[in-house]
Structures
1.
Amino acid sequence: MVIVLFGAPGVGKGTQAQLLSQRYGIAHLSTGEAFRQAIQQGTPLGKQVQEYVHNGLLVPDELATAVVAELLAQSPYRERCILDGFPRTLQQAHALDELLAQQGRSVELVINICVAEEEIVRRLLARGRPDDTEAIIRQRLAVYAEQTHPVLEYYRQQGKLHEVDGNADIETVHQRIVAVVFNTIGPLGDAASLHRASE
Ligand code: ADP
């Protein structure tokens, strides 16, 4: 089972993916985190992606897809997985479908978190990551509108897209997402109750 958390930079995908991951005990795969870690550690991948990430551009599809392919083949991601930050282009979406089909699974649900653009800029400036300067934020939003937004239509046509209003506090947005997961996939059990049951 694969759930994709979707949305513009700054809508809170990472935060919400982590909450969902903890709640249900499902692995969380963030391509942005994977790239930032590689950059910080100075790995060959890090050197290949740093110019793109720091300038608010997308890492080339082939590279991003290769990284995801490798991770999805490994535990824990080859079981249940929440994807955050991938796919970001139509080409990545097609590649993901092929990858998952080879593993006998598919994207089950895509949750689009919607937040107004000015609120996004405000949140990102407050976060202050190295790629969170106003100019780079505007660049990332433009890249999103041009290259990533079309992916929504792809999933909408497959009936997999669900929208969640992200203009609320973290816990409220989390509850909205949990409701969508429950209504579409059904009860997943939560990690805390599974843990209690095994005690
Ligand atoms: P945000 O959602 O705030 O933009 P992310 O952590 O998801 O932050 O991504 C940070 C950066 O990592 C992006 O601006 C881009 O350079 C790179 N990146 C992340 N995911 C992908 C992807 N699927 N394809 C290409 N580049 C990506």
Note: Residues 9-10, 13, 31-32, 35, 52-53, 56-59, 64, 85-86, 88, 92, 140 surround adenosine-5'-diphosphate (CB under 6 Å).
2.
Amino acid sequence: MQADHSNSDRLTISDTLGRPMRDLRISVTDRCNFRCTYCMPAEIYGERYEFLPRPEILNFEEIERLARIFAGLGVNKLRITGGEPLVRAQLPTLIESLTSIDGIDDIALTTNGFLLPKMAADLKAAGLKRITVSVDTLDEEIAKQMSGRPYGPERTLEGIEEAARVGFDPIKIDTVVQRGVNDHTLVDTARYFKERGHIVRFIEFMDVGTKNGWKLDQVVTAKEIIETIGAEFPLEPIDPNYYGEVATRYRYADGSGEIGVIASVSMPFCGTCTRARLTTDGRIVTCLFAAGGKDLKSLLRGGASDKEITDAVRGVWSNRGDRYSELREAATDWEAGVVEGAGVGPDRKKIEMYQIGG
Ligand code: SAM
Ligand code: SF4
Ligand code: SF4
């Protein structure tokens, strides 16, 4: 581990591959009002599925305390996620408390947008800086199929309009692309949000978790996505906004905005991965594809001091060597359509996406 005291008394820590810890993604609930087929398939997460019991879930004071500790170790950006974060009661109260943390200069949220029409104004007033809304397609039937619920995209689109009205700008749209499911609707999605000035980021379907039946042939690569959109709206590559940005950016040649592709399957970006994740039940997880994580809740509830918790987080990050997507890519034979290698692919034990929020 390298450590230094840069510009203030905040510490910067690096992992075994020299990557600093900059972002913390906080999963505020493992529950969701959708059942996206690629994340929480309805046939597994049915009415009787038992999500975390309330006492297991970190309360707002605990989340704030941990966020403060992470900020002390170099984190400057928080992202609130889930599950669906907007189903967590009083979420704006949590956001307001996080805005007071020294060193945090960005708080973002990822949501499916269903509850956004009534919550956008409160989130803005609480100090939320940026919002990302997931929209996989504008097609009514495909949206229902992918969300696993009898809802088309209308409510989510209303939520995006409301978010724009209360001043979120830019708004990012996350679109997971699955071959044979929504890949023929990408141009319509791009056109709709281009006209409204929002930035769509097309995401390659990932083998996160163990329940979504991932297969390599369902992955539409970033290259294909860019060719498809570019054939309709000419595109030019542009530089990243900052170190560790996950999306590769392109702008519309007509000057009407930009899109991104998140190519974690075909062009992994582990080398600049600066993201730590906090699960709803208080574990720190250092990779989207990790099997589990280190429990911080027991420390919190067992009376540990800030220093003891700081040391625990530092220990986890400084031992981190995660680079799953790079290993998976190296084990991928695109021609044969298979992933073959020790410890990678759909059969590996992994934490579920809704527990860590992407
Ligand atoms: N419920 C919120 C939402 O859907 O925006 C936040 C949590 S969700 C797990 C975060 C992001 O992960 C969403 O944009 C979702 O589309 C994406 N995601 C979930 N499963 C995925 C998968 N298998 N491959 C790629 N992206 C996935
Ligand atoms: Fe819920 Fe988001 Fe997962 Fe869809 S992707 S099931 S909205 S947590
Ligand atoms: Fe980061 Fe793990 Fe994704 Fe690589 S696979 S970019 S280490 S979360």
Note: The first helix runs from residue 60 to 72.
3.
Amino acid sequence: MTATVVAPVTGGPALPQKRNLVTPIPGPLSAAALERKKKYVADGVGTTLPVFVAAAGGGVILDIDGNTLIDLASGIAVVSVGNAAPAVVSRVTEQVASFTHTCFMVTPYDVYVDVCEALAQVTPGDHAKKTALFNSGAEAVENAVKIARSFTGRDAVAVFDHAYHGRTNLTMSMTAKNMPYKNGFGPFAGEVYRAPMSYPFRDGLSGPEAAARAIDVLEKQVGADNLACLAIEPIQGEGGFIVPAPGFLSALAEWCTANGIVFIADEIQSGFCRTGAWFASEAEGVVPDLITTAKGIAGGLPLAGVTGRAEIMDSVHVGGLGGTYGGNPVACAAALGSLEEMRSHDLAARAGELGALMRTRLEGLAQQFPVVADVRGRGAMMAIELCVPGTKTPDAPRAAAINAWCHAHGVVTLTCGTWGNVFRFLPPLAISDDLLNEAFDVVAEAFAATA
Ligand code: PMP
């Protein structure tokens, strides 16, 4: 039996934008729901903060016990336009009432093509571009590799330390971190080679120096002529919001072009206004050959894309790309609604404002608490790395304690990083300054309370 909801269930921006705790976290109804989860949902599917959701919108999540939490996660960088954003709701409602699925590969429909046209406009570069749509980020990355292999006739794939590209077999192989993503799930896909990432806080190298180091590894251990593609997150997500040193991405992109290697920017987490621009690649003027998108694209509905140079995209034979649900019409309608919200509210500019606010708050924390060893990020994709004071030794237990404290006090925070010692802040771009400041007051209290 489903727990009774005690709170109103209408979400979207009209939801009262205020943190309000009326029970301990989790409350009794969420605790009961969690028992049902334990009984019926596979244990491998974990949850970060076990409150069950009744509604969400703007910068808040309302749980079934009537608690309102401030959202600094956006469902992992997905609901950038805010939950149940008006343009998403209206377009989805209209689409779902007209038709829900035909399979684009059987009988096509306009909204799919509309999304591909929009992606050609908003992604970097003014060359001819084409897109194929899928359901998840991992599927987009898999298909980008398929396309690059088809175009080049080569097998090898270059990826980086700390990378995250997904949980399917190929994308697990491309992902760096063992626990929890890979452990026990091998054998992994072949022909995937890992190069060192630019990690300014830890390696102190300039972008060109770090690129030279990575290129040397790839040339000596793989050979440029064997590489179909190089896949990289312009700002790494799960790996710890690592922003490569300036010049790293552009040097890699130039090397790829010079050697006939398809440069794939995985912008699944960093895309769609999150970093203060449509895509993070733009900060360095990098024009990827292929770009993978998902998450922020469709306001929470499952949609992903591979967009790229028309001649590369078209190297695949007819029927070689697709899937039953890829580019589902309801998800495409949601994407059009999300893009409308991003444009009409200039969410790229808003991400810049939110980023400035967060940076000020995080630098304040760093001054007050020496456990904060690095403040980094861009736009509304900000993070702090926690280390034992005076060292670069990761302090994951402290991060876990602060995270738990924030959750108990009504702020949805997320950690990440190879060592689990990084806090990442991904508020919806629809959040107000007041609410964001209140969330950072709680984060500051968490540092003090766990000192
Ligand atoms: N690439 C990146 C950069 C990601 O952040 C993620 C998701 N965290 C993925 C790929 C995989 O996306 P999905 O979970 O939709 O498969």
Note: Residues 76, 136-138, 141, 164-166, 233, 237-238, 266, 268-269, 294 surround 4'-deoxy-4'-aminopyridoxal-5'-phosphate (CB under 6 Å).
4.
Amino acid sequence: MNLATVVLAAGLGTRMKSALPKVLHNVNGKPMVQHVIDSLKQLRSGNNIVVIGPSGSGVKDALAGYPVAFALQKEPKGTGDALKAAARQLKGFSGTLLILSGDTPLISAATLRNLLRLHAKNREDVSIISFIAEGPHSYGRIIREGAKVKAVVEAGDADESQKKINEVNSGIYALESRVLALLGEIRVNKAKGEYYLTDIIGIAVRKGLRIGAHILGNETELTGINTREDLCRAAHYNREKIISKWMESGVSFMDRSSVFIHPDAKIGSDTVIYPNVHIEGGTIIGKGCVLYPNTRIVDSAIGDHAVIKDSTLIESSVVKHRAAVGPFAHVRPGSVIGASAKIGNFVEVKKSVIGAGTKASHLSYLGDAEIGENVNIGAGTITCNYDGKEKHRTLIGADVFIGSDTQIVAPVKIGKGAYVGAGSTITKDVPPLALALSRTVQRHIENWALRKQSQATSKKSRVKEKKLP
Ligand code: UD1
Ligand code: MG
């Protein structure tokens, strides 16, 4: 089958009441139009067109790297006019066109394949995916005479008996390229001032073409998003599906209703996920990990058997196997936490490499640092990486011991196996195996407290004496 695909994504999305084009609204952290193209991609058509409007540069950006070309619909004059914009780019194409809406993000590749299979098998000119809609809705109604499809009537134009029809149009069609010639016969809808693509069905029927409508999916999969209510519902369906998929592959959830997982994220088996965990972007979580409550992991890779403790944020970083991060830790972009390393309570790591087995257990800031293996970073250690103008690097060799409350003023290097005494301010390189101490020497004034006490008593008695009459 010679196949081309068209995604209509130029609508204003007025009902969303948003400055953002509708198809860029996220369903579980991923713009709806990306969801659609990800399903479409699996059909391996080499000719994919996305119709965008004049303010569609964001859509182009969201689809950078996807195998699609763009067609411009100059004004949002309806779905029929949007397809016309694509047709101009399809001149000379002969074959089957698969048409989708950018606002129907949960459509699966399997359903699209089913449509194409039936379309070819029944030798139809136009095939529609329909579904049964429950409750009140504004989908176009499929009008049949007996089994034959006669028209699609939009909710706004339907009479009372048509409104009762619950078989509705998903906005997804397969059609033969010759049918595009009928686009010119669509008349503007007076009430809306738009050219409805759905009118092509009635026109094709009158020309004696073969039309089929097939219930190939349910409302969950085929839900169209016009409002924020619809968006929330679709996100819920998608979330349920993603979590079920990971449970099937061996991931445990304490409370599935409070966990958010990006559609592109991956999770290894025997990982346990506590409530309120967010796994965002293309994050990869290894096997046998534990993600404790309130952790958010964005665009990161977490190795096998790592433990991410409560209230921790990890962004664009790598945490290697058996490492422990948190509670209350922040791993900022560009960091690598080595195998079996420990990043503990209230520790912030930025653009730093932390060696295997290294421990920073409490209250530290490690920025622009490269820290070797088996280093002990004492509580309250701060890398002073910023001089007000530029950032500088701190290099700490393997097996170093940094005492608590140390400030390391970068750029500086602490050699392998060196010790830094607690409370030091390190401004010069420390040679390997040395002990660096920069705090002032402690001195004692013997019996100072006793003298202070006796001074205080004699002062008090002087005051009392003065008060005597
Ligand atoms: C459309 C169908 C309706 C179907 C429903 C399924 C029409 C007239 N109606 O209604 O039968 O039940 O989808 O969800 O087709 N678009 C453009 N340019 C435009 C207008 C729209 O590209 O000028 C795009 C939108 O970005 C959207 C898609 O076409 O992705 C559908 O448009 P929308 O306005 O959402 O149509 P519905 O009212 O939902
Ligand atoms: Mg819609």
Note: The first helix runs from residue 32 to 41.
